[in-house]
Design a protein that fits this description.
The protein has helices at residues 2-12, 19-32, 51-63, 81-92, 115-128, 137-147, 189-206, 221-224, 227-241, 256-259, 277-284, 297-301, 322-334, 336-347, 352-369, and strands at residues 40-41, 72-76, 98-102, 131-134, 154-156, 177-181, 212-216, 245-249, 265-268, 289-292, 305-308. By secondary structure, the chain is α/β, with parallel strands linked by helices.
Length: 371
């Protein structure tokens, strides 16, 4: 029954933007109620985890999600080809302005499908958009490199997070606790493997006085079947037996301040991550980072951590060197107080109130100039 329902949803999804159905209805209602108060449509959020889904749900809480009566379409690069084509048709039919949020691009190092066709659908949506919001400078440069295209009207607007109700302004850890969290998908070997290897190196160096790892996040069911993941589970078990690792499992985002309160340094090792919300969240808790010096991550962290050099390629996901990671963890722990202050300061650049206000201003601007 579940498979039938999923197939029905898949077949109906392209109709969400049909100019014949939604477009005429929305346009008719706009004539009856022509106010300029933004009524954005953010798409259908189909997953509970992952940065884009979390960010979209937060914005829906601020603005609502106006499926039947939108006056602004807020398309995103994670939408599938049918959804993007529908958004373009909706805009070109003159129903409502289109704002496009650009996160990651498709490239052969992680995407097994036709990455050129997937990127072409994004470019077509950017061409139709009244404004393109790029989540990082990296998103602009990646688009140039992979497609040769640069949007005519764009701005860089980094992600932001709502303030935590309660947060520690100073580190509470023991001086040797390392935090690693992610949604571990089948392509996460380059994230998890060097982290576990680095912790093993540190254990060999320092014995029972070595730094230990707090490992948290959701493991995708498909990841559990991957040979690399099964092998790493054995390495994690060895660390756990010696007190070098503790698995926290999946957690609610609201629990992050409590769970991470005893950490001293965070790792962010995803290759070419466009604009990770998780980094901003951890910096707001005063956590410095050791990170892959790739993608948009360095734009967020600045001098609130240490970036590890990696090869620049689109053909594969490049892991950091485990020994270099171990050395960097030692350095970051030794300098954690200074780096923590820098992390808190850097996090203030990503104000949620300013982020929402900029979106409201963008919606007002595109509605004001829409014909």
């Amino acid at each position: 029954m579940g498979a039938v329902a999923a197939d029905v949803r898949r077949r109906l999804r392209p109709l969400l933007f049909s100019p014949r159905i939604l477009g005429r209805l929305a346009f008719a209602l706009r004539r009856v109620r022509p106010g300029r108060e933004p009524r954005p449509f953010w798409g259908i959020v189909r997953t509970a985890v992952g940065g884009p889904a979390v960010r979209t749900r937060r914005m829906i809480a601020e603005f609502g999600n106006h499926l039947l009566t939108p006056n602004v379409i807020y398309a995103q690069s994670g939408w599938n080809a049918d959804e993007l084509a529908g958004a373009v048709a909706f805009r070109r039919a003159g129903r409502a302005p289109l704002v496009f949020n650009q996160n990651g691009w498709y490239y052969p190092g992680w995407y097994n499908g036709d990455w050129k066709a997937a990127n072409a659908a994004i470019v077509e949506a950017q061409r139709a958009a009244d404004l393109v919001l790029l989540q990082s400078q990296f998103c602009l440069e990646a688009g140039r490199a992979l497609t040769g295209y640069e949007p005519r009207n764009y701005e860089v607007l980094h992600n932001a997070i709502p303030p935590f109700p309660h947060r520690n302004q100073t580190l509470q850890g023991d001086g040797r606790t390392v935090w690693l969290s992610a949604v571990f998908t089948p392509d996460s070997e380059h994230i998890l493997k060097p982290a576990v290897q680095a912790m093993a190196i540190l254990h060999r160096r320092h014995g029972q006085a070595a730094p230990h790892l707090l490992l948290a996040g959701r493991v995708d069911p498909a990841t559990r079947t991957m040979p690399w993941f099964q092998a790493i589970l054995g390495d994690i078990a060895l660390l756990e037996a010696d007190g070098g690792c503790r698995r926290l499992g999946e957690y609610c985002p609201d629990d992050l301040p409590r769970l991470a309160s005893n950490a001293d340094v965070a790792l962010h090792l995803k290759y070419k991550d466009p604009c990770p919300n998780a980094v901003i969240e951890r910096m707001a808790l005063g956590l410095p980072h050791v990170f892959s010096n790739s993608g948009g991550t360095p734009e967020l962290i600045g001098d609130a951590g240490i970036g590890l050099p990696v090869e620049d390629t689109w053909d594969r996901q490049v892991p950091v060197d485990p020994k270099a990671l171990a050395d960097a963890i030692e350095w970051a722990l030794a300098n954690r107080r200074r780096l923590s202050d820098a992390a808190l300061e850097a996090s203030r650049r990503f104000s949620w109130d300013a982020y929402v206000a900029r979106h409201r201003a963008v919606f007002t601007e595109v509605l004001g100039s829409f014909h």
